[in-house]
Amino acid sequence: MKNPLMQYANLEEVLKAVGGPVKLLRGSRLGPYMFPVNAPEHTNWRDEQRAWKEGVALLNLSYHMTDLYLRGKDALEVLRNVALTKLQSFPPNRGKQLIAASHDGYLLGDGIVFHLEQDYFRIVGPPVISDWVEFHARTGNFDVEVDRDETVTFRPGDPRIYIYQVQGPRALDMMREVTDATLPEIAFFHIGDFTIRGKPVRALRHGMAGETGFEMFGPWSDHEVVLEALEEVGAKYGMRKVGSLAYPTSTLESSWMPHPVPAIYHSDAMKPFREWLTPPHLEVLGSMGGSFYSEDIKDYYMDPVEVGYGPLIDASRDFIGAKALKERQLHQRRKKVTLVWNHQDLMSVIHDSLYADPPARFINFPLATYSTFHIDDVQKQGRHVGIAQFSGFSANAREFISLSVVDLEHAEVGTELTLLWGEAHMPRPTVEKNSLREVRVKVAPAPYFEKVIKQPDARVRSALAAAT
């Protein structure tokens, strides 16, 4: 059945027709962000999670991300205009995190930008960051060519390039062997060149959840040869392929906020962008769920400072949102933390989702998120003190955890808070009848993996032990 929103020309028309952004997002039937083509599990999601910490994991990123290409003498200026990231020095064969804010300093989204060659860039990640960059590249006075390779969810056919990621403590040894010793020394967030079975490969050196990693890419015509080589050599190292169930849970350990509600729905400054966004875009079709409810869309937003991007803000130049972010840095209100669920309360919610009347909201494993933009209410003695985004189970942490931003006064490790699980406002048929449940949670560091699992100290261990 055709989506009724397709009758409208753009997001601005849609918002007027449905009665505003909260009604639009709360009324959408779309589920969580999809990871198409890749199997849900290649073995089992618990061992697939453990692979990126204990051995080596292979992730196929070829299908679910949007690739936006900018070429031309003004390409870097486009990025400097929209991104808060430090881009004064950005030579070829480097990668950077590309983070964007609204004019009034709320977070729009982020991704990774690859400087492939002089004046040629690839932006990759969730669609929102590519949409924002493309809008300015096409509507601004820039000498730049724009090209886009959409996620396969929104277009038929094969991807333009393959993207394979290997992660884990055995990844480096595996890569040396699979490249027949052509693997060069690649510094963190630099791009290097090597060969696999005679095929030229490029890779960004980075890490996921604190472990060694390489994100390889090349023309789609080479994808089978490269994949077969990775699988063949990887078998010697106990490599596991990571399916679509385990893959998005890596963010729980690394504490990356992957799908914030993009700050585009509220201001006159964003109106030109809303008029540019057509209904097939995720910002129009996406859903919002979770226990937190407000009629004011700004209450669902986060800002770059509170999610940990403050040190990345370039204070030396002007960009969209620069003035507002200076104020937010001076008056930070919240901080990103990890929330560890109380074991007894988690078990009670699972029980009540099956047997209570009215039931609790069902919890999916390993990732409990059931909407595109998920926002749960975090409270202290019945008072709202923060919001939680992603919630799920980490086999590495052996905990059910949530990524959250909470008021600074409640951000200390070990602080006891309450997360409300469920959804009292449920216009969507995708959410079953349920009643809210209180879940006791305790504050842990973010990123959880690096500071709690990899390098725990006595204070953190004591606080987390008390959580269970």
Average residue-wise pLDDT: 92
Q: Span from first to last CA?
A: 47 Å
How much strand content do the residues show? Answer: 25-35%
Q: Characterize the main sheet.
A: 6 strands, mixed
Can you tell me the residue ranges where pLDDT is under 50 for at least 5 consecutive residues?
A: 451-468
Q: Pairing-aware structural class of the strands and helices?
A: alpha+beta
- Percent helix, as a range, is 25-40%
Shape: globular
Number of helices: 15
How does this model look, in words?
The protein is α+β, with helices and mostly antiparallel strands and 468 residues long. Helices cover 27% and strands 27% of the residues. It contains 15 helices and 19 strands. The protein has helices at 11-18, 21-27, 45-54, 75-82, 127-139, 171-178, 223-234, 250-254, 271-276, 282-285, 305-309, 322-330, 343-355, 448-454, 458-467, and strands at 57-60, 66-71, 94-101, 107-117, 120-125, 145-149, 161-167, 191-196, 199-208, 211-219, 240-242, 288-289, 334-341, 373-374, 376-380, 383-394, 399-407, 416-421, 437-444. The strands form four sheets. Strands 8-9-10-7-1-11 form a six-stranded mixed sheet. It has a six-stranded antiparallel beta barrel with strand order 13-17-16-15-18-19. Strand 16 and strand 17 form a beta hairpin. Helix 4 (75-82) packs across helix 5 and helix 6 packs across helix 7 (223-234). The longest helix is centred in the N-terminal third of the chain and has 13 residues, at 127-139. It is globular and about 60 Å long. Residues 451-468 have low confidence and may be disordered.
